[in-house]
Design goal:
Largest sheet: 5 strands, mixed, barrel
Order of helices and strands: HEEEEHHEEHEHEHEH
Number of strands: 9
Number of helices: 7
Strand order of the largest sheet: 5-8-7-6-9
Bound molecules: hypoxanthine
CATH class: Alpha Beta
Shape: globular
Distance between the termini: 41 Å
Number of domains: 1
CATH architecture: 3-Layer(aba) Sandwich
CATH topology: Rossmann fold
CATH superfamily: Nucleoside phosphorylase domain
């Protein structure tokens, strides 16, 4: 038996002892974006601590719980707080919650994060639709024996971010007059913010925004054939682009400022996902 799958099954049993809620959409809220929980008609809340073996986030601004409930008619599970590789967890633990949400029934994954802006024209407060990613600087979440129950050994990553969901996001942004940027997200291990030289490297590689999460989760999700959407909140311009010192407080402050726009966008996207299903 695969120990990673074993642990997941134990976590799944623990979840099912608390709730039989079956989500269709899984939503991961990034740093400072956790307030979205207020938009969900809540059915159940499950603290990560109540699930034995579940990796618990240590970062301030990350609440650390699953919220189960409805956005309109759409059953969602929402992660208020995620775990990061830099906290010391194995990549298999970092993506455990994603796999668990798929086991609960979610087949669409909406990933959000706070990120540093690299591309000219971005500014603190911009929202960016993730169209592609670079994950080569962190270990693969699929390393180790393949979990055949989830997917194949060598999964294709040709189109990680679903094109239909991207169109849905762009239409939702137009409806609310939100200037939704588009770009490539690069995941670096952190926890230190990058040096200006590293940001120059990221730019050369074609990255438009940098962060410490998301790409590994998207890989695990695609391994399981989930449809993935990613949206970054550009909370600051990346190192060396502006003369300001980077801090977690600034990241949270900016995320708070765009929360309203961001929340409108996410709600509209989820409602449209529901409409698509009934076409
Ligand atoms: N770099 C990496 N991660 C981040 C940043 C950044 O500038 N801002 C928010 N998350």
């Amino acid at each position: 038996m695969n120990p990673i799958y074993d642990k997941l099954q134990r976590c799944f049993v623990a979840v099912r002892e608390k709730t039989d809620f079956e989500p269709k959409v899984a939503l991961v809220l990034g740093s400072g974006l956790g307030a979205y929980g207020g938009h969900i008609e809540i059915e159940d809340i499950l603290d990560y601590r109540e699930i034995e073996g579940f990796p618990v986030s240590t970062v301030s601004g990350h609440a650390g719980r699953f919220i189960f409930g409805y956005v309109g008619q759409v059953p969602v599970v929402c992660m208020q707080g995620r775990v990061h590789y830099y906290e010391g967890y194995e990549m298999s633990d970092v993506v455990l919650p994603i796999r668990l949400m798929k086991m609960m029934g979610a087949d669409t994954l909406v990933l959000t994060n706070a990120a540093g802006g690299i591309r000219q024209g971005f500014r603190g407060g911009s929202l960016m639709l993730i169209t592609g990613q670079i994950a080569s600087f962190v270990p693969s979440p699929l390393r180790g024996p393949n979990i055949e129950e989830f997917g194949v050994r060598f999964p294709d990553m040709g189109q990680i971010y679903d094109l239909d969901l991207q169109r849905t996001a762009k239409r939702a942004a137009m409806k609310f007059d939100i200037d939704l940027k588009e770009g490539i997200y690069i995941q670096l291990p952190g926890p230190q913010y990058e040096s200006p030289q590293e940001i120059a490297m990221c730019r050369t590689l074609g990255a438009d925004a940098v962060g410490m999460s998301t790409a590994c989760e998207a890989i695990a999700a695609r391994h399981m054939q989930m449809r993935v959407l990613g949206i970054s909140c550009i909370t600051n311009m990346a190192s060396g682009i502006t003369p300001f010192t980077l801090s977690h407080e600034e990241v949270q402050r900016t995320a708070d400022h765009v929360a309203e726009q961001f929340e409108a966008l996410i709600t509209e996207i989820i409602l449209t996902i529901k409409d698509e299903r009934f076409l």
